[in-house]
Amino acid sequence: MSITELLDILNNKNIVVWKEGCNVKFKAPKGSLTDELKEQLKINKSMLLEYLDKEKNIYFKRDEINRYEEFDLTEIQSSYLLGRNTAFELGGVGCHGYMEIEYNELLDKDKIEIA
């Protein structure tokens, strides 16, 4: 399991982790930190400390209370939404992007996922 996969699992369970000195600290809702997750934290402690030390991690927490409330779209969001509308001559198409990247060396999967 990669560090990002572990952090995603923890985040989905509302478990917050941070580095304090040479230790990984966490705050978890009761019953959410299983024995398996505790073991993963122990196994990946050094990599997790390195990751937390190097990265400025920002995690977005779901706002369950206001999740269905209306909100204003940005100009670009409005453009994307209108572009999907078939009422326009060239409409009915979502935003697409394409990119090719060549690498001259082997890649570290964990580092790519972090990037």
Beta-strand share of residues: 5-15%
CATH topology of the domain at 3-54: Arc Repressor Mutant, subunit A
CATH architecture label name of the domain at 3-54: Orthogonal Bundle
Strand tally is: 2
Distance between the termini: 17 Å
* Shape by Cα distribution: flat
Distinct helical segment count = 5
Describe this structure in words.
It comes from Finegoldia magna BVS033A4. Residues 3-52 form the TubC N-terminal docking domain. This is Enantio-pyochelin synthetase F family protein. This protein is mainly α. It has a domain at 3-54: Orthogonal Bundle (Arc Repressor Mutant, subunit A). It is 38% helix and 9% strand. The chain contains 5 helices and 2 strands; from the N terminus they run αββαααα. The protein has helices at 3-12, 35-43, 45-54, 75-83, 109-114; strands at 16-20, 23-27. The protein has a two-stranded antiparallel ribbon.
Quick overview of this protein structure:
38% of the residues lie in helices and 9% in strands.
List keywords for this structure.
single chain; 115 residues; mainly alpha; Arc Repressor Mutant, subunit A; two-stranded antiparallel ribbon; 2 strands; flat; TubC_N_sf; TubC_N; Enantio-pyochelin synthetase F family protein
List the helices and strands and how they pair.
Elements: H1 3-12, E1 16-20, E2 23-27, H2 35-43, H3 45-54, H4 75-83, H5 109-114
Antiparallel strand pairs: 1-2
